[in-house]
Specification:
The complex is a heterodimer of chains A (about 325) and B (about 350). Chain A has about 325 residues and is an alpha/beta fold. In chain A, about 30% of the residues lie in helices and about 25% in strands. Chain B is about 30% helix and about 20% strand. In chain B, strand 11 and strand 12 form a beta hairpin. The chains are: A alpha/beta (about 325), B alpha/beta (about 350).
Chain lengths: ~325, ~350
């Protein structure tokens, strides 16, 4: 049994808005094992990014707040920890990779300065040492001639190179956990393949755990060990990547998998769809949140929220009627 | 196959001057579209795939004459659009429509959906007010929007519904050809499939031709009859959609297909991602534009630009490839030279 690096228990995050308090993340539970990659998948607005921001308490202030729950990282509860102690963890033990590398990097500073900033803050080292370690880490993420590139400004680099710099910043202090929020969404497919390969290889070398947040099930299948599927602020299904992709049990997970056009599908056929759209946070139905789009809907779904039921081992699903689905045609 | 093509593009070039310095002197040319030729048949969907910066959107905008081409012919129903002035283009605008990527930016937020959809009829002087309103209501039905949408504003709709408004506006005047520039890439997967289904239905019902521009090869292959793969302003491969997917002949197409993540768990696969980035179209590489990233590069590729030639077996539909060699998807890459040069 591998050690858990992070445990999120019953996390509830809400935002104060003009329409009152809206709960964006509602009772989310998951764990990340040491050296493994956990994927959080869902469509826009399902609460996956808010979950990530809640872990390191980077929610937009003053609107966002954690109402309840625990985030246990290396034995400490990050929700109740002192701010000074949290700052020692952020950027040091937990690295963060954001989606848009242009906004994650400061355009008026050279990348070398931005890289050594974190190193100087968290380690008792000289500027010279920080510079050397920055060059090393840039080489590690595959930037050619890093001694020269370290003096570049972000705008002098291409999108893929910028994302490599952001990854270098996240990894500079040897974190035990990296949270990557849509790290490849802004990139072209060939560059995406490079970045995913790089993250895989760095994980093997450095042994950190990764939380990968994405809407792309293909990316999850190729990089993750475990998967959490979120819908409207709740976890609807979780399990190993094998479980989720080979035996998807929630009608939402199934719908998502079936609606992706694949290269091996016959052309011009009707794609399966999930009818309707995600309900707004201010108009969530009572009971199961997926009921208005669900093919399995029964009266019971409107009365109570379905509990997490075990499918097998660690594979769990939040649906009353998951057993009633026909088995998927094997692909 | 002696059918008259709906659109025949010949040697189309769209070059942008790059201005520099205090006096804004033209210092270089960006060859966004460089000598591209193709046909679109009535009722056909031609897919256009490439990475950002390869010139695919510029090609779409040039065909519809939102940009004035530097050189070449755009023959639509017999008339060369490239030679016409904007005023002379108006009758053709009805037949040539466009769907944009971002429906938030392409719809005027101060107009109701009813006004937005009525506008094409007003511009082209069709019907009186009652007839126009009737047509708007039919359009809403066709794209699956509720009738009360007419009095509402674009911001009241979700991304998928807004794209339906964009589609309704494009089909309003019964066009023959629609240029679709990344119509589904801003949408979530579950909504993307709804919109793709709608576009396929409308194509059958209205006998439309599409030029479907996207970066996602899986999406393009699903809707297209033929596919063109574009790299740095040029077509590198062009053929039947199934041939492109089953027997990709250009190393770039092969790399694109290999890069698409597949929703089947396979964490520790050995991937061979393409090295490097897309070179700048202002200073394209000499010889084959792809040689800086090609795993099969040889000395000849660096000096001699390959022509687009038909490499299909005799009797098979055309399959154009711009590569000096016959490379199969599983072929071993060329070993790196002994004195490895510094990666650019």
């Amino acid at each position: 049994m591998a050690k858990n690096i992070l445990e999120v228990r019953n996390l509830k995050t809400a935002f104060d808005t003009d329409a009152g308090q809206l709960t964006a993340v509602d009772g989310v539970n998951f764990t990340v094992e040491q050296g493994k990659t956990l994927g959080i998948v869902g469509e826009s607005g399902c609460g996956k990014s808010v979950t990530a921001l809640s872990i390191v308490q980077l929610l937009p202030q003053p609107m966002g707040k954690i109402l309840d729950g625990e985030v246990l990282f290396e034995g400490q509860d990050l929700v109740r920890i002192e701010h000074a102690a949290l700052r020692k963890i952020r950027g040091n033990r937990i690295g963060f990779i954001f989606q848009e590398p242009m906004t994650a990097l400061n355009p008026v500073h050279r990348i070398g300065k931005q890289l050594s900033e974190g190193l100087l803050l968290h380690n008792n080292i000289s500027k010279k040492e920080a510079h050397e370690r920055s060059v090393d880490i840039l080489r590690k993420v595959g930037i050619p001639s890093p001694e020269i590139r370290i003096g570049d400004y972000p705008h002098q680099l291409s999108g893929g190179m910028r994302q490599r710099v952001v990854i270098a910043m996240a990894l500079a202090c040897n974190p035990s956990l990296v949270i990557a929020d849509e790290p490849t969404t802004a990139l072209d497919v060939t560059i995406q393949a490079q970045i995913l390969e790089l993250m895989n290889q760095l994980q093997k070398e450095m042994g950190m755990s990764i939380i990968l947040i994405t809407h792309d099930l293909g990316v999850v299948a190729e990089t993750c060990d475990d998967v959490v599927v979120m819908y409207a602020g709740k976890v609807v299904e979780k399990g190993s990547a094998q479980d989720i992709f080979n035996h998807p049990s929630h009608p939402y997970t199934r719908g998502l998998l079936e609606s992706i056009p694949r290269l091996d599908y016959p052309r011009k056929t009707q794609l399966k769809t999930i009818p309707g759209m995600v309900p707004g946070l201010d108009s969530l139905p009572s009971g199961c949140r997926f009921q208005n789009r669900c093919p399995l809907k029964q009266p019971q779904c409107a009365q109570a929220a379905p509990p997490m039921e075990t499918v097998s081992g660690d594979h769990a699903v939040s649906c009353f009627y998951w057993r009633d689905q026909a088995p998927l045609p094997s692909s | 196959m002696t059918q008259q093509p709906l659109l025949a593009v010949r040697h189309l070039k769209m070059h942008f001057p790059v201005k520099d310095g205090v006096f804004m002197k033209t210092s270089a040319t960006c060859k966004a579209v460089d000598d591209v030729s193709f046909d679109i048949q009535p009722g056909e969907c031609l897919g256009l795939v490439g990475e950002s910066g390869c010139g695919k959107s510029t090609l779409g905008k040039t065909i519809i004459r939102l940009l004035d081409p530097t050189h070449g012919e755009i023959r639509f129903a017999g008339e060369d659009l490239a030679a016409l002035r904007q005023r002379q283009l108006k009758p053709y605008r009805r037949d040539l429509q466009m769907i944009f990527q971002d429906p938030v930016e392409s719809l005027n937020s101060r107009h109701t959906v009813g006004n937005l959809l009525e506008e094409p009829f007003i511009i082209h002087r069709q019907g009186d007010r009652a007839q126009r309103r009737q047509k708007v209501s039919e359009l809403l039905d066709k794209v699956g929007l509720p009738q009360n949408a007419m009095e509402r504003f674009p911001f009241e709709f979700s991304g998928g519904q807004r794209q339906r408004i964009g589609i309704a506006r494009a089909i309003a005047l019964n066009p023959k050809l629609i240029i679709c520039d990344e119509p589904v890439s801003a949408l979530d997967v579950s909504i993307q499939s709804q919109v793709l289904n709608l576009m396929l239905d409308l194509q059958k019902e209205l006998h439309l031709s599409y030029l479907f521009i996207a970066h996602d090869l899986a999406v393009v292959k699903h809707v297209s009859d033929r596919i063109a793969i574009m790299y740095l302003g040029k077509f590198v491969e062009f053929g039947q959609a199934d041939d492109i997917y089953r027997h990709p002949k250009h190393p770039y197409t092969q790399a694109l297909i290999a890069s698409i993540p597949i929703p089947k768990p396979r964490k520790n696969i050995q991937r061979m991602p393409l090295k490097g980035d897309l070179p700048s179209p202002i200073h394209p590489p000499t010889g084959c534009p792809f040689h800086t990233r090609c795993p099969h590069v040889q000395a000849r590729c660096k000096t001699e630009a390959p022509q687009l030639v038909n490499k299909a077996a005799p009797g098979q539909p055309q399959h154009l490839v711009a590569c000096h060699f016959d490379i199969e998807p599983g072929d071993e890459p060329t070993p790196p030279p002994k004195h490895a040069t510094r990666a650019a």
